[in-house]
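Note on ligand handling. Small-molecule inputs were canonicalized before submission; formal charges were left as drawn, and no protonation-state enumeration was performed. Where a ligand contained multiple stereocentres, the stereochemistry in the source SMILES was retained. For adenosine-5'-triphosphate, this procedure yielded the string shown in the input block below.
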Amino acid sequence: MADVRLPPGIKGIHVLPADHHDGPWDSIIVPPGTKERLLGTAILVLRHGRALRSVSGPPHGLVVLSGPPGTGKTTLCQGVAQAAATVVARRGATTFVEVDPHAFPSEMLGESQRGVRRLFTETLPELAARRPHTVVLVDEVEALAVRRRTASFETNPVDVHRATDAVLAGLDALRAACPHVLLLTTTNFTAAVDEAFLSRADLVLELDLPDEEVLARIIGSSLTELATLWPALRHLADDPALHAKLAGRCAGFDGRRARKLVLASVARHPELAEDPARLTAEDLLAAVEAAAGLSTVAGSR
Ligand SMILES: Nc1ncnc2c1ncn2[C@@H]1O[C@H](COP(=O)(O)OP(=O)(O)OP(=O)(O)O)[C@@H](O)[C@H]1O
Ligand SMILES: [Mg+2]
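Structure output:
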C-alpha cells in the first residue's frame, strides 16, 4: 500500500508484511550464506536494536549492498524487508520506506545539506514512530554519501562534502534516536562511497556477477516461471543439463541479463511470441548465442 502524500525526499512507503511483496526474496539466487547474513542482520536490528544500545559497539543498523548493475541488490533489499517483516510480524507491522537519493540536489548550495539533515532528524524518526519496525532503503547511496577524500573541490561543489558530513551526522542522530531502524543501502561503486559511511555499516555485502552454477539456476528458475504459464514448457524447466549448457555460453552476464534470456528467446520470432508453448531448446541456444555475440561486440568497442 503506497501513501498518496509522501514526505520530502521519500518516494515510497509500504506496510509489511504484505502478500504482494512475496517474490523478490525467492527470485534472487545468490551463493549460500548471503541471504542468511542479510536476514540475520535485519532481524537483529529490528528485534533487538533498542536493547543492544547498552553494549559496546552497538549496531548502526546500516547495511551496504555493493556490486555491478543487475546483480540483484535492489531486489534483495526489497526481499529482505518483507522476509524480516514476516519474522517480526508477531510484534507488529513494519514500515518500508524508500528514500529518493536524487531528491537532494547537490548543485543547490546548502539545500542538499538541509534536506539530508531533515531526512535523518525529522522525516525518518517521524516515520519510525508509526509502527514497531521500520526498514529504510536508500538505493544508489553514492549519490548521497560521496567519498569526500576523492571528491575534488573543483569538480564537486563544496556542498557535496557538506551533504556527506550531514549524512554521517544524520546516521549517528538516527541511530541514537531510533536504534531499531534498519537502513539498507545499495551502490554500484563502493569506491565512491565515503569511508566513514562504510565503516559504520554492520554488514557490507559484495555481490559479484553470477558464476556458471548460479547462471544455470537463474535460467532454470526463469523457465520454471514460464512453465507455470505454459505447462508444455515443463520439459525445458526440468532439464538441468540444458540450463548448464546455456549458462556456459553466457559467462559474464549479470543476473538481469540472464533473467531476460528466456523471454528474449520467445520474442525472437513473432510465432513464438504468439504461442510461447512452442519454445524449444534450440530457440534458447540461438538466443544465448545472439546475446553473447552482442556482448562481444560491445566489449570490443
Ligand atoms: N542473482 C540473481 N538471481 C536471480 N535474478 C537476478 C539476480 N540478479 C539480478 N536478477 C534479476 O535482475 C533484475 C534486476 O535486479 P536488481 O534491479 O535488483 O539489480 P541491481 O543490482 O539493483 O541493479 P542496478 O545496480 O542496475 O540498480 C531482478 O528483477 C532479477 O530478476
Ligand atoms: Mg538497483
